[in-house]
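Hi F.,

I've been meaning to write this up properly since the lab meeting, where we talked about keeping a consistent format for the predictions we share between groups. The idea is simple: the sequence comes first, exactly as it goes in, then the structure tokens exactly as they come out, then a line or two of notes. No screenshots and no reformatting. I'm using this chain as the first example so we have something concrete to point to.
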Amino acid sequence: MPDVEGRDRWLMRVRFWLTLFVAGLVLSGLTALPLEREMRLLVRVAGPGTRIGVLWPDLASWLALAADGVRETGQRFPFLFYGTDWLAFGHFAIALAFVGPWRDPVRNAWVVDFGLITCGLVIPFALVAGAVRGIPLYWRLIDCGFGVIGCGPLLVCRRLIAQLEGPRPERR
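Output, unedited:
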């Protein structure tokens, strides 16, 4: 275990990476709210007729189709967006769980382990559920990327927390 000054530096590092992860969760949750505006923006940036759309026409077509689906759903069945409101809430609630390891990383290391497990589970969930829903593979791989990216700061945190914990006694 590091000395007091070293421990403070380790804590600052853990807190930096946890803050980065929590910010990602909150931003991801926020994007679940203004879906119609976001889809219009995506189509303007990467839809048919844009530079990206010319380079990647399948993506452009998918974005246009998704934007149409979101627009029509908003017009005919706006109550369905309540589900994405709850998705946002879920992101915010999970982010709150990381206050524990921010305050006491050693005692709450299990929350970081939970985060690593859930980030890992994003991959099979996106691949399977996305296939069931007809989501193109490249889009499912983008979704998988969020799980992979989320693992980055959490793996750094876990290693830092292990340093704070010090050596573990041997089990018999």
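Notes:
DSSP finds eight helices and no strands in the chain.
The chain has a mean pLDDT of 94.

If this format works for you, I'll send the rest the same way.

G.
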